[in-house]
Amino acid sequence: MLQVNQLSIGFSSKVVASDITIHLNSGQLTALIGVNGAGKSTLLRTIAGLQPVLKGDISVGNQQITHLPATERAKHISIVLTEKIAGLKLSVQDVIATGRHPYTNWLGTLTKTDRQKIQESASLLEISDWLSRPVGELSDGQLQKVMIARAVAQDTPVILLDEPATHLDLPNKAILYKTLKKLCRLGKTILFSTHDVEAALQIADGIVMISQQQTQQLSTPDFIAGDLPNQLFDGDVVEFDRNSVKFIFKNW
Amino acid sequence: MISRYKALFLFLTLLCVVLFAVDIFLGSVNLPFSEVLNTLQGRGSGTVRYIVIEHRLPKALTALLAGIGLSLSGLLMQTLFRNPMAGPYVLGITSGASLGVGLLLMGGAAIPMLGAISESPLSIIIASWLGSGLVMLAILSVASRLKDILAILIVGLMVGSFASAMISVLSIYSSAEQLQKFTFWSMGNLSNLSWDALTWLSLAMLPGFLLAVYCIKPLDALLLGENYAVSTGVRIQHVRLLIITATAILAGSITAFAGPIAFIGLASPHIARLIFKSGSHRIIFGATMLAGIALMLLCDILSQTGGVLLPINAVTSAVGAPIVIWLILRKQGL
Amino acid sequence: MLKSLLFSFVAAFLVLSCEQATNTPVKQNGVSYAKGLSIAEYRDFKVVTVTEPWPGAKSNYRYVLHKKGFLIPDSLSTLPAITIPVKRVIATSTTHLPSIEMLGESASLVGFPMLDYISSPIFRAAINAGAVQELGTNQNLNIEAMLSLKPDVVISFGIDNSNPIMDKVSKAGIPVIFNGDWNETTPLGKAEWIKLFGVLYDKADKADSIFNSIESEYNRLRQLAAGRSKKPRVMAGSVYQNQWYVPKGGSWGALLIRDAGGDYLWKQTEGTGSLALSPEEVLLRSDEADYWIGPEMMTFEEMAAANPHYARFRAFREKNVYNFTSRKGEKGGVLYYELGPNRPDIVLKDLIKILHPDLLPDYQLFFFQKLR
After folding, report:
1. CATH number of the domain that C237 lies in?
2. How big is the A-B interface in CB pairs under 8 Å?
3. I want to staple C190 with a disulfide (CB 3.0 to 4.6 A). Which of A134, C119, C184, C304 is the partner?
4. Does residue A129 share a domain with residue A148?
5. 8 Å CB contact between C72 and C82
6. pLDDT band at B172, cuts 50/70/90?
């Protein structure tokens, strides 16, 4: 379970968003939405420890993780990003194995438990056949599965994903969302950011909407029923239809 | 899978042993095979024994150490900067060493005090070490303040340029003899290390080597990018400093004792990745070392065949440049 | 009418015969050892020909030397002319100076590049008195200073066909002579260039007699050493980084060793200059030489520190190593480089003293010194 209290995120020169308070339960799939530049990426990266917390605190379960050293934090939070990786000669297994780093010794030797976890993650993502292939040979969608498997192997209660669906075609999107649901059923707490609000409204249990003024968390039904969807876009151009749960273009 | 790696490692190790032996049995003069064999077995005397024990053996061992030190530095730099074209010298370590030695050998015209220092091999070693040490400190102090790894690379390149410019100025005001001495040094030289000097070199390299081994795990994490590395628990600033320090110690020591030697650091990791078809440092670390040893020994052997004794840098460049061009053409990555 | 015709005949005949007379040399060439120098003496002038002042020189260099007021024939008017005796001289190499000094003309030196290299006490006194101007380095001579000194001649040397600085100087009207002594290969050949200075200072006879005494002393010493059938084996040269440089068998130093009754290890190599050898090649012969001539260090300790392999050589182990750099001038110039080429008799004497000490029991080494 992930608890964020009155968090201020941003850079030393600029506060991107402040006073963020959210509470996510385990087994819950939550979508993070907001207009471009609102701070979705920044929020995820701050929670993951990639960017410093300006104010506030974060905890996972009962554990305060705001100021934990990276090695410890890595046991609570894992993240999947959109950036390209350089190590194209690494095998799929090697990449997933880096997820075990918080648990292995100084040399990174894999124990039986580690190998087991790797196998489990791979089969969960249905990529067990690819373990010895170099990641350079994979497509974007396939690579993303590997990165998710890695996050799963990291065995953290919370998994964050930064725009995981953005570069995927529809079939792959469906597979992605199915996987995320699967992980939630296993007890993970998952927060993912997305532009595709319609899809999010279909699959997520809850929505966090972030903007410069305020950040709000609602369950999906409450979100649909409320006024927030219209705040996402300029009312003249796009309108939200509650019944079909769709955004309609207006005034062509 | 595992057995495939084992077989490859065995092959590479055997190759290194064979090359080492060839480097001892072959030299710039023809020594009878049986006499060399005798000497290695503990018998033998006279000039043949002297040449084998005091000249060829130390030279081959220097090649061994240089192969290890340079190849590992190259690997560290390529992973840290996520750049397949990086080598041990991108941080300006050789430039610093060259400036140190340049000041010693050619600076007497500009700074009279320097002219008084003797130009013995020991002072050259110290001057080289001081030069690369100062550059290392400059880079380290900058590295801890900069977030972007690319900025550190650029600082290293700029430091290198600056040192090279200073050396150009020094060479204008130096005598032909001094300039020749400096040029000789910068061509690299694996011979003329006494057994004592070899011991010092090994001791100097040891901390760098141990640091590099300690970095194997974070290096694998770094291959996914610094953000992923942090998310699995790597302390980025800490690891950067370790990698830079290890590189400076390894490359700086070799340069101090044997002069700057090009291309081995750049080419060896790629050869290792090519043969083992892996990017994981748990495999590539050892493979790179072996590739570096083999490459260095091969270049030493080539430098003395054919009647004329070629400077080692000429050979490594002649062998290394085609490799690098081929790499670029095949777009070899990490 | 006949009288004036006869008169013009006689006049024409006299003029023609005059020309003829001035066109045949009184003495063709008195130079025997120096292959690059030849001096033709005419009644009123001398023609100096310098052949091959540097290896691969494209042409000979001829100069006409004449006293003031004497005519040069038209056929020679294209050659650079120098009025003798010269009173103000610029020299460019320390090897030019001993000839000037031996002829008693050291006061004539007005300018020189890299003054610190000069060792001779007489010239150092002149320098300290401010009589000689510093002209920079040979690569970067101070042309303006040279011109403002208004020398009568510049004694220069070239190493290849490109001598832009000297071209400028001679265009400005100052005669430049290329001294090819450095390109001479034989000991007496180098020393005989004093005769060039002899004609420049109009002291040709004195130059001849000085050279003759050097020549006879040299030959006397050579005969002395030739009487010895046992010739000690000698090595020369030193290593830097990975290259050993040893003088070739036809070089000046090698010839001196031969004349001193020594057996130079690489005597069979031809040519002048140095041979580059690999350390192994030299190490293989490390037991052969009894003597080692010419490393630059002062002490055995220094040598051992410079290269671990030096200590292997038998000459080193038996402590028979001699250098020639210990005798230095006031500002560090090595005397051997300055005086040696001009006094091969002294160098030969030193070498004989080293190789066959019993032949010269009372003689003390001058240039050479055993390492400490």
Report:
1. 3.40.50.1980
2. 102
3. C184
4. yes
5. no
6. confident
